[in-house]
């Protein structure tokens, strides 16, 4: 009997993101604090006799090897000589190319699901290594919650997640290439860098006001200079009942950590009056370990 699994792939935000410098392998050394939120893609894995097929409700999502879920299935089949195929159905809840990690999360959840479906024997270290080979953010999404990620993002240290906290997320309709952002980031022009150590202390103390004050992303000024709407969105969010606001990843999504659900929904309603901005309300999320 062919198996079928239904899974959720959760988005992330970067509460803090610092770039330390380029590496010899062409990547950059980073230090970031990640947290999953309950915004998610719904993924269905259906076993089939052979081949890999992707179906999605969003035409912006590729259905070939450009999609990390396809590469994930290919790597597992080749590495472990799996004779079965799979149909992967992706219902998108996370905006595409938004800095919220949708592609990496989809890959991590597909990896976990296929290991279970195809009964692949793989220990925790092997799973992390395979995830890291797929993408820098993929190891984090194997568990989600809260973590510091170092190296190129693949070295993950778990943190206690925040108490449930509401967020507003605003994605302007501009395209930001991650490669462009890193190529154009000039370390000497970064006006301020987030204190990752300070953020960890605030998170351990469940000090949401402290977390909000310490939120920051070294790509903010670069993006705000090229796309003024990024700075405008941050100012609008901070004008509400927000602990803090910053850019997620290399953007273009700007998000705010809000005082409560009512504050998040009020700010979201105000932001929806702006042209060409997708606005979502979510909250921090962590599955029990």
Observed structural traits:
single chain, 289 residues, alpha+beta, Ribosomal Protein S5, domain 2, Alpha-Beta Plaits, 7-stranded mixed β-sheet, 10 helices, 33% helix, globular
Secondary structure class reads: alpha+beta
Mean residue pLDDT: 94
- Look at the structure and give the CATH class of the largest domain: Alpha Beta
Rg, Å, rounded: 19 Å
Structure report:
With 289 residues, the chain is an alpha+beta fold. It is built from ten helices and eleven strands. The strands form two sheets. Strands 1, 2, 3, 4, 5, 6 and 8 form a seven-stranded mixed β-sheet that branches. It has a four-stranded antiparallel β-sheet with strand order 9-10-7-11. The mean pLDDT is 94.
Chain-wise SSE layout:
Elements: E1 4-22, E2 28-48, E3 52-56, H1 68-80, E4 85-91, H2 102-117, H3 124-134, H4 138-141, E5 146-151, E6 155-159, E7 166-172, H5 178-184, H6 196-204, H7 208-214, E8 216-217, H8 220-226, H9 228-238, E9 242-247, E10 254-258, H10 261-271, E11 277-283
Parallel strand pairs: 1-8, 3-4
Antiparallel strand pairs: 1-2, 2-4, 2-5, 5-6, 7-10, 7-11, 9-10
Helix pairs in contact: 1-2, 6-7, 8-9
In a few lines, what is going on in this structure?
By secondary structure, the protein is of the alpha+beta class. The chain has ten helices and eleven strands.
């Amino acid at each position: 009997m062919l198996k079928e699994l239904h899974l959720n792939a959760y988005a992330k935000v970067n509460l803090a993101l610092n770039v330390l410098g380029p590496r010899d392998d062409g990547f950059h050394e980073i230090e970031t604090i990640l947290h999953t939120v309950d915004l998610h893609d719904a993924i269905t894995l259906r076993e089939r006799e052979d081949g890999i097929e992707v179906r999605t409700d969003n035409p912006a999502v590729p259905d070939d090897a450009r999609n990390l879920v396809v590469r994930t299935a290919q790597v597992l089949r080749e590495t472990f000589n799996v004779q079965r195929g799979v149909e992967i159905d992706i219902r998108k809840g996370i905006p595409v190319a938004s800095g919220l990690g949708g592609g990496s999360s989809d890959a991590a959840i597909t990896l976990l699901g296929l290991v279970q479906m195809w009964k692949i024997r793989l220990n925790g270290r092997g799973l992390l290594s395979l995830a890291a080979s797929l993408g820098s953010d993929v190891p984090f999404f194997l568990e989600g919650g809260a973590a510091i990620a170092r190296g190129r993002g693949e070295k993950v240290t778990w943190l206690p997640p925040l108490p449930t906290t509401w967020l507003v997320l605003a994605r302007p309709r501009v395209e930001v290439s991650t490669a462009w952002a890193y190529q154009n980031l000039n370390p000497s022009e970064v006006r301020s860098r987030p204190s990752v150590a300070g953020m960890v202390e605030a998170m351990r103390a469940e000090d949401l006001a402290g977390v909000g004050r310490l939120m920051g992303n070294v790509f903010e000024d670069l993006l705000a200079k090229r796309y003024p709407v990024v700075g405008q969105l941050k100012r609008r969010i901070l004008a509400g009942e927000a602990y803090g606001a910053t850019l997620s990843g290399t953007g273009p999504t700007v998000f705010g950590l809000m005082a409560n659900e009512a504050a998040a929904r009020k700010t979201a309603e105000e932001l929806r009056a702006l042209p060409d901005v997708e606005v979502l309300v979510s909250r921090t999320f962590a599955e029990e370990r």
